[in-house]
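Quick illustration, no need to memorize.
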Amino acid sequence: MNRIERLIEITRKKERLAVGLMSGTSVDAIDAVLVRMAGEREIEPLHFESFPFPDDIRSRIKTLFDPVNADIKDICHLDFVVGELFAAAANRLIKNAGMTNDRIDLIATAGQTIWHQPRPMPEPGAAALDWVDGPVSTRSTLAIGQSAVIAERTGIITVGDLRLRDIAAGGHGAPLVAYFDWVHLRDENRGRCAQNIGGIANVTWLPPHGRFDDVVAFDTGPGNMVIDELVFIFSGSAESFDRDGERAARGQVRDDVLAWCMSNPYFDLAPPKTTGRERFGRQYARRMIEAFPDTREEDLIATATAMTAQSIADSYARWISGPVDDVIVAGGGGKNPVLLDMLRARLPKSVVSVYEHLEEKEAMAMARIANDALLGIDTNVPSATGGKPTVLGKICL
């Protein structure tokens, strides 16, 4: 059986096994999940593991976030290095699940984003070319973790670069997880916010009795990113996150610092909108420290935690027009009890709970998107990303 025949066979199966890979803005680890999918809405996680990045590679990847210090040779090289790590994570996951690669139908990955330019930038020089029809103005995004390497090392069909087609279709390329939320978390009788709190926080609002076109999704702002960067700086690089919110619990939220945080112009942008490390990364954390030099470290961390909760609640009030009966939290922020308490205090009319597949969710979402893309289903959410309906991903056979 050749590769094309194998692909056709997979699309005809009633049940598929897939590996979803996810590496977020925190660059702490590769989350890998093996799932079984059947029908339109059935998904079952069979095995999950998180594979930490080596410290030196994590540091090199984070250097790529800085446009001043990023080097094209490193971007090129790390694209393949991260691809090797993704492949190794998939191979280890499958082995530890007691399976062999020939049983797995596909691997899904969006890659490790290193730069995200969600708003169009014009290229005036192109307008002078007589073979260019109209002005050239485009959004862009760049992720490393070469899917060709993953397919070669695993022998499994790999669907990668999941954001790019939406960008090409005029969208922001995010939030991708909105499609998963629509498929698996909507409820006929309750309005739901599926709130992911990773490095960046994003929400999907699923209205009761809603249609696909009624879904609202966007990045609410920073999730754990500013908190993590403050902890990293204050600990002298020894710690990378506020475990169980312990540092925030020892601090007090400073109203003046919170007002400074909430004055960021991103919060006034109307959806569709996305953001990332370019706006709320280490430089932002350093500006926060410099703006309030006499503030205790714990107070700054507590206030950064409050900023995440406040920006989420404000986003609901400003941009969600229907009921929010449930808030279902996933991502690393779901393990921070201080952040959850702050969120509940700001959303007293909503039931705030933690998703049962807290850590696996984003990797599961990648698997669902890739699975449905192979079936020719449009897997972006135009009302969320702003792009035209399209099938996401590039297939490496």
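The chain is about 40% helix and 20% strand.
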